[in-house]
Structure formats: C-alpha cells, structure tokens
Amino acid sequence: MKIRTILLMGGLVLLGACSESKYDLDQLVPEEYHKILYVNNSGKQSLTLYDTDEDNKYTLSVIKSGSDPSLTASVKVNVLTQAELDKEYSEPEGTNYKLIGENCYSLDATTLDFSSADRYKLVNIYLKPQSVKAAMETDPEAVWVLPIQVTSETDSINAEKNELFLKLAGVITPAIGFTNSAVELKTLEYGSISTFTEKIKFGLDTDNKWDLECKFAVDKDYVTEYNADNGTSFKILPEGTYTVPETMTLPSGTTNLELEVSIKGDQLAPGDYMLPVKVMDVSQFEVSESKAVYPLAIRVMGHNLDRTGWTAEANSEEVSGEGAGNGVAGCALDGSLTTFWHSKWNGGSDNLPFEFIVDAKKEYTFTQFAMMQRQHDTNRDTKAGEFYVSSDKENWTKVGDFTMKQILEAQMFAVTPVKGRYFKIKMTDSYRAPYCSFAEVYAYGLE
Questions:
Q1: Where are any strands of DSSP class E within 381-410?
Q2: Peptide bond between residue 353 and the one before it cis (omega within 30 degrees of 0)
Q3: Three-state SS across 58-118?
Q4: Cα(193)–Cα(188) distance, rounded to whole angstroms?
Q5: Residue 395: Cβ within 10 Å count
Q6: Which of 9, 135, 298, 441 has its CA at a distance of 20 to 30 angstroms from the CA of residue 386?
Q7: CA–CA separation, 311 and 330 (whole Å)
Q8: pTM surpassing 0.90?
Q9: Could you tell me the CA-to-CA distances from 49 to 131, 132, 170, 260 in Å, in that order?
Q10: 183 C-beta neighbours (distance < 10 Å), count
Q11: Which are the contacts of 130, defined by CB distance < 8 A and separation ≥ 6?
C-alpha cells in the first residue's frame, strides 16, 4: 500500500486564502497540495486516566486543509505495532516504550471519509482504566503508550502532523475531599458574636459525572493529635454549639459544593476552639487521605485588659539602661515600642531560663497573651517558653507554651483560661542565647 505523505512548506498553506480561480490554483499549486490532512492534536500528549466505572474518552481530530479543501478525502486511523513503535520511538530515544494491548482501548472509527463540505473529523478513543492499570503493573518501569497514525492511499498527509502519541501517565482513583485542609484561624471578639455560618468547600478532584452521596461527621480525636503535633491548645467546640450536616449529595455536573456549618458564637467563652469536620464516606470512589478533614479553627478573644497600674519584675534585667531606664521589666508595660525589657548583659549575663512576672493588681480570667519582640533590626531574641498564672505568686498553674517569630508585629498566644492576679512568662530558649528581650507584653481576658 502506497502511503502519500508530504512535508508542508509554510507559504503553500497560505495559498488557500488567495483569490485566484480554481483554474489558476491548479496551475500554480501541485495537485498533492490541493488537499492536505493532518492530526490537529498531534505529537506526544500525556494522559492520566481515572479509575471509574466507565471508559475514559480522548478525542482525536483530523483536519482537511490545503489550497482546495472542498475536495473529498479518505484516511485510515491505525495503531502502530510494537515493532513500529520500537523503530520509530524506543530505539532512537533509548526509552522502554510499551504498547498497551487491544483489550485496553477501542476506536469508534478507523476510516474517515471527508465530503466536500467536511473540514474535520473526530475519532473517539475509549481507554479502559482497569485494563490499562493491569498492563502497567506488569512492567512498572516501562512507559506505556498508545501511538496512533493517520495514513491515506489517495490523499496527502502532513508527515510532521500525522501521529498522536499518547503517553499514559497513570491510573488514579477519583477522590472526594475538602478544597482546603489548612488551619486558618478565625478571630472573634467575645460578647460581640452571635450565630454564624461557615461555608466549607468540598468536591471531587476530577470532572464529576456522578451523583455522589457524601457523609460528614466531627473527628473529635483530631484536636488532641493536632495539639500534640503543633504545640497548640485548641479545645473542641462544645456539644450543642454547632450543627454539621450529616449527608450531602454532590450532583452530576457539579465538581464542588459548600458544606454549611452553623456555630452559636454567643455560647462560646474566650479561648481557641477547633471543629474538625471530616468526610467519613462517599458512595463511589475514595475519600482523599490528605484532604479528609477541614479543621475549622476559631479564636474567641477576651477583652484587651487595661494595664494601668500593673507592675512587672524579672529574675534578670538590665538596670544600666540604654536610655532612660531602658532594660528593666517595667519597660514592657509602658506602651512605648522604643523601650524594652532585656535580660542582664552589662558586666556579664545570666543563664536561661528567665522569668518575667506581671502583677495585674486584681484577678482576671486570662485567656490570651501577646508579646512584641524588641523593635531592633537584628536583636529579636526571645524564642520559646511557657505561660503560668497564679493568685498568690507562689502556686503557679501552667496555662500554655509559646514560640515567637523574629518579627516586629505583636504575636498572640492562646492559653487555657485560668483565673489569677499574676501571670508569668518563663523563657526557655533564645535566638541569641543567653539573652532575651521584648518590647511589650499584653494580656486578654475577663474580669
């Protein structure tokens, strides 16, 4: 069988747009350029298959062009043999290409006949994911492909665009999950919140062609695990303060939906809360392991307590000062960012840990503390430590831990709400040991 293929010259393709008569074109353009066929999506294409209950469809298009595309044409659509694949691709590229078997695919047409009015024809390739997956498992190191070639005994084919080379990247099972599974803290002010709704987006990781029944629940164990892994002190939202839909249907044609979670904010005391909403099951496919849980995080802020009259002391401070009284404990309560408390440095230094104690003069239920690093280009010293609360400055209750960043902004830390008159910041680590410092200390809570 004689296969007519040609390499196109760019100028010749443009002749199809000229205004000469058919006779003039016949004289100017060789007959083989009157109609030229090519694969529109030719070349190497990577394709990931989804392991669903139906075949995965890929569409190949063959275009009829040339100086007189109104002519009729006929082409064959063939799959290369393994021998042809090796000669044309595997050996020149030094790659172990393997042809998937005939049980892995089907074509809805192998002959395309173009009428004078036809400008393109489509060929649907149906790939069977289970069969492809089984084939790939026989030789995981190979690159599995489906190379398709368009040929003709009567018409000209562009030799540079006559093949579609489908590289099968893998077969994966679609999974349902939340669009975002990162912790994003929502901050609310105590006493100014009522019932509100959080909309959490979930969906399928591919185009949805099915009606999927999804089941949701609250994963109460998640909070304990998250706190242990991240050094946080979240509490799970109390029963009765939230409503989570148990089921939702993701209908065919819809890839993503919003799960609406209702929260009774006016029933929450100050503190850090988490509601880990989990996709428990889906009627088809899988639940994404990495996106199965959305950790809805809420911080209810206590009131910013007035520090007027408060006093501070520390087991290490720089009394020589860098300016008027700078370096002593009281500088962290004076409202000025140009002053700061600093552990002893002049004439020697003390060793960690350092303890910074504030007397609030009356009892509060402390819910959060905030600190600001020394407002200096490089000397932002304090790194990590612990918070304590006491009513008598003798018996202390640990209420939380902290790790500070080397930034200028105020850094907020939630603690277990405890009532007391005194709070202590115990510094156990430094970015510039053995020194620690900070510009301001704030406390939040309720009287």
A1: 382-390, 396-403
A2: yes
A3: EEEEEEEECCCCCCCEEEEEEECCHHHHHHHHHHHHCCCEEECCHHHEEECCCEEEECCCC
A4: 7
A5: 9
A6: 298
A7: 6
A8: no
A9: 11, 9, 6, 32
A10: 15
A11: 51, 171
Q: What distance in Å separates the CA atoms of residue 65 and residue 59, rounded to the nearest whole number? A: 19
Q: What angle do CA 364, 366, 371 make, to 5 degrees?
A: 125
* Nearest alpha carbon to residue 423 among 433, 431, 413: 413
> Contact at 8 Å (CB) between 231 and 290?
no
- Tokens, residue 43: 């070349």
237 touches 275 (CB < 8 A)? yes
> Minimal CA–CA distance to 133: which of 123, 125, 144?
144
Q: In a structure prediction context, what are the per-residue pLDDT tens digits for the chain, which is 447 residues long?
A: 334 444 444 444 433 444 444 445 445 556 666 899 999 999 999 999 998 878 999 999 999 999 898 999 999 999 999 999 999 999 999 999 999 999 999 999 999 999 999 999 999 999 999 999 999 999 999 999 999 999 999 999 999 999 999 999 999 999 999 999 899 999 999 988 899 999 999 999 988 989 999 999 999 999 999 999 987 889 999 999 999 999 999 999 999 999 999 999 999 989 899 999 999 999 999 999 999 999 999 999 999 999 999 999 999 999 886 555 689 999 999 999 999 999 999 889 999 999 999 999 999 999 999 999 999 888 899 999 999 999 999 999 999 999 999 999 999 998 989 999 999 999 999 999 999 999 999 999 998
> Both tokens of residue 383?
């790194």
Distances (CA, A) of 222 to 34, 183, 234, 425: 69, 12, 10, 29
Token code pair at residue 176: 């349902």
Residues in Cβ contact with 258 at an 8 Å cutoff, skipping those fewer than 6 apart = 199, 200, 201, 202
